[in-house]
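Now for my pick.
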Amino acid sequence: MFYFSYRGLQTIGTDRKCWAQDFRLQQGKAFRLPYYGSSRTKPLAPRSANATKKATSSANEKSKSGKKEVKASNTLNVPSSANAEPNYLLMVLLVNSSDPMINRLLSVPPNINFNQLHMVLQIAFGWAECHMHTFNVDMVDSASGRKKPVLLLQRHAEDCADVDMVLHPQEETLFKLSDVLEKEEWKGKVTITYEYDMGDGWQHEITVFGRAEPGLHVMLGAPEYVKVLCLAGEGHPCAEDSGGGPGWEELKEAFAKRNGDKEKREWYKTVCSNGDPKGLDPWKWSILDVNDGLGEIKL
């Protein structure tokens, strides 16, 4: 089981967004995670010798007067809802991409439905929601490793049915993530793939790392209404309508070379649905912008 454990917080910058540091996966990989909100705009300054003496004297006087002494503690007490299930930790890989392979590590609640998960993935990967999508759930045979389709989820499934399809599509709003991951006969035996844009065929493989440590969002300072967080990731969002993996590589090459394809550059800067007038850096992305977007999703 993978989980996050608290190592410590360091407050820097403004009171809107600061950084939580030294969170680690049990497997040893470190991440630098953003968290929201802080009433303190700068680290506490160290106490002077005189201030320390005054504090000690005051504490002694209170103790003598019969008041209970309050001991300092290095432990962060994290409030958590007794009824709330811990979030799933999902590692999502965009398998059509490389150098870097675009990925996001997400914390999502178990009761999220698949249409809401679709919105989360659109924001996390910087898509512009211009195309159709599906969720494919496959049962994996432990002996052969072969996959057998067991569930196909779509939006407005009744309008998407095809007589030639292996599975009849089901309405994605009617299924929660926990319905799939906790179903007795499927538990630990299924894979989930999110496919976006059937023409370009962007395949997002979703791997469940386990459950988040209770109170993780509180430790990161996220407001109570924020149910989904991006904890880590890599890679600039792919360009819409770029032609799948090969087209994305050609577009990156156009920006990488000094004399790269000018038409591709201009297309990305001015026409592409999720393009950028400033150009393209395949490694550049903003976890803060992603979490801003995820914070607007109401679950």
The chain is about 20% helix and 25% strand. The two ends are 26 Å apart (CA to CA). Confidence is low (pLDDT under 50) at residues 1-48, 65-82.
